[in-house]
Each structure stands twice: as C-alpha cells, then as structure tokens.
Amino acid sequence: MHRRDFIKVVAGSAFTWPLRARAQQTVLPVVGFVDAGAADASVARATAFRKGLGEAGYIEGQNVMVEYHWLAGRYESAPTVMADLVRRQVAVIAAPVTSAALAAKAATSTIPIVFGVGEDPVQLGLVASLARPGGNATGINIFVTELVAKRLRFLHDLVPKATRVAVLVDPDNAFNAKTTLQGIQEAAPRIGLQIQVFNASTAGEIDGAFAQMAQERPDALFVAPDTFFTSRRVQFATLAARDRIPAFYAIRDFVVVGGLISYGTDVADMFHQLGVYTGSILKGAKPAELPLLQSNKFELVINLQTARALGIEVTRDLLSVADEVIE
Questions:
Q1: Structural domain range at position 306
Q2: Is 4 exposed, middle or buried (0-12, 13-18, 19+ CB in 10 A)?
Q3: Is residue 69 part of a domain?
Q4: Helical spans, DSSP H, in the chain
Q5: Does 283 share its domain with 212?
Q6: In this structure, what DSSP letter does residue 60 have?
Q7: Which long-range contacts (CB under 8 A, 24 or more apart) does 125-132 make?
Q8: Alpha helices in 26-77, H assignment, sequence order
Q9: Between the CA of residue 3 and those of 9, 13, 16, 312, what are the distances in Å?
Q10: Which residues make Cβ contacts (< 8 Å) with residue 137, sequence separation at least 6?
Q11: Which residues contact 13 (CB under 8 A, 6 or more apart)?
C-alpha cells in the first residue's frame, strides 16, 4: 500500500471511529416511570426522583434515559402501558402508585420493578415479605391507609363539633378506596363520627359530589388519598371554600393551593427514595434482596388563612405539633 493511501485509510478510520463510539454510547438503559398523576401537577415528584437517581450515580440523558408516562387518573390504562414497556424490555419499571405497581407485577416476572404504595405490599401480592421481597419487585411503603385513624383524630381536634363527616373516594382506584373505607369504618365510631360515603372518578363527578354534599350539609369532608384527586387539588380547594366545608387531605399539595389541613407521608421523599432504589438496581442490585423501605417522614400542614376564612380557630396545641403552617 502506498504511503498516501495508508494515510487516507488511517485518517478515515480516525474519523469514523468516534462516530461509532458515540453511536454506541447513546444506547442507554431505559427506566419506564409510570405515575397515575398528570405531568403538569407532578413536576416536583419527577425532580425528586431524578435527584435520587443522581445520588445513585445516574444522570438522566447522560447514562440513563427515563421515559415518563402520566396516567392522569386513568388507572385502567396502566396494563397497556406496562405491556408496552415489557415488550420493549426496559431496564427498570418505576411505579410510584398502587395501580401501576400491580399492573407492572402482572405484566412481568423478570424486569425489575420499584414501587411506591400506600397499602401493605405483602397483602397486595407484590412481595413475599418486607425484609426479603423474593421476586422482581421492591420499593417503599408510604402508609397511606394506615394513617386514616390519625387523620380522623386530627380532623376532630380541628373541628371538635363535627359529627357528620363526608368521605370522598375514587371507586376507579378500587383497592385504595376499599382499604380507606375499612380504616374509616373502624376508627370513626371510636371518635363519635358518623360517616357518609361519596364517590368521584372524574372532574365532573367531583363537582357532582360537592353539589350533593351541599344538600346533605355534612360538618366536614375527608378526602381519601388518591393520585387523581391530587391532580384536581385546585378544584377541591375552590369547591371547599365556596361551600365553606372544612376538608382534610392526605398530602400537603392540597393545603399549598388553599386546602385546610393535611397529614401524611412526605411524598417528595418517597419519590427521592424511589430514584435511589432504581439507581441501585441499575448498578446490579437485585430487587429480591433489597428490603422494603418504610416512610419515616410525616407532616401535618395547616393553612391558617383558610381556617380564618372558614371561621375555624386553630388551637395552640394543634399549631404546636404542625410541621408547617401556611399563613
């Protein structure tokens, strides 16, 4: 080979090799992230998830791709989304809500699943035990339904004269609605509360439930923990203010936009932990050997401005135990 031709070959190889290397580098592991909320209402949660991934050494767009799916309350679409993720063999499925976690577990026994659920994951059939999950799934238990009795007690402390309490659940989120009602039916009689159940699965049905409550005139409203309800938190705050009904929620997102009071898990912390566990699995950890994490951050949040508008005097005792008071 002539020297000139050899130089051309070497130069050509030097030019094409980086292109091939870059092409290979773009093949990144894909995480399928499936949440029941709406994208515009879940920015902080996605940010917390990415922060957890980062702490595990994974930066979105650099060494991992995250494919976001927002169900926006359409729980029935979860199996279709999961079937597509399984067909494309994503590296990990992150399912920070019960409906998505159950759909993922039904769709695959091999792809790792990291979930966040408010109910008992053993009862749900997601894991064999909390210490040793034993399958392809692990995650975080955020104690949504276990806190029902405590929420009712806080509601009673805030509105001690309330005896008739409306409970709003989403029947499309069937397991959550069932366990919430079970907890309420056990706790309410001990506090001296009478319960009336209302159902809503769409924005229109939320309007309808409030219209019905306006006729029934309950003393207070207990809103079941539900991702779709969270996506409609401004609607809840507006309707509760219009009808002057004290409403209790499961997470602070409602109180920030004008809701009265909430008590529950620090949801951002749950998404952060979800990201950390997802990163651990991407590094090679096996879900079967990663013990279930349990939430240890809970927050009582009170909106004093809303309380004043409703003519409710928040006691010093209640204010003293609040983690956040919104003026």
A1: 145-264+299-326
A2: exposed
A3: yes
A4: 3-25, 43-55, 78-87, 98-107, 148-158, 174-191, 203-216, 227-231, 233-243, 252-256, 267-282, 304-309, 316-321
A5: no
A6: B
A7: 126/101, 126/102, 127/292, 130/291, 130/292, 130/294, 131/291, 131/292, 132/288, 132/289, 132/291
A8: 43-55
A9: 10, 15, 20, 91
A10: 101, 104, 105, 112, 113, 114, 115, 126, 127, 287
A11: none
User: Rg of the Cα trace of the chain?
Assistant: 24
Q: Within a domain: residue 319?
A: yes
CB-based contact 236:259 (threshold 8 Å): yes
Q: Encoding tokens for residue 136?
A: 């392809």
> 40 and 127, same structural domain?
yes
Distance in angstroms (rounded) separating the CA atoms of residues 14 and 81: 43
Return the residue matching tokens 């799934």: 137
| CATH value at residue 293 | 3.40.50.2300
Q: What is the pLDDT along the chain (327 residues), one digit of tens a residue?
A: 444 454 444 444 444 444 444 444 568 999 999 998 777 767 888 999 999 999 999 999 999 999 999 988 788 899 999 999 999 999 999 999 888 999 999 999 999 999 998 888 998 899 999 999 999 999 998 876 668 889 999 999 999 999 999 999 999 888 888 889 999 999 999 999 999 999 999 999 999 999 999 999 999 999 998 888 988 999 999 999 999 999 999 989 999 999 999 999 888 899 999 999 999 999 999 999 999 998 878 899 999 999 999 999 999 999 999 999 998
Cα angle 285, 45, 205; round to 5 = 125
Domain assignment present for 43: yes
Say how many domains are in the chain: 2
11 in a structural domain: no
On whether both 319 and 207 belong to a single domain, the answer is yes
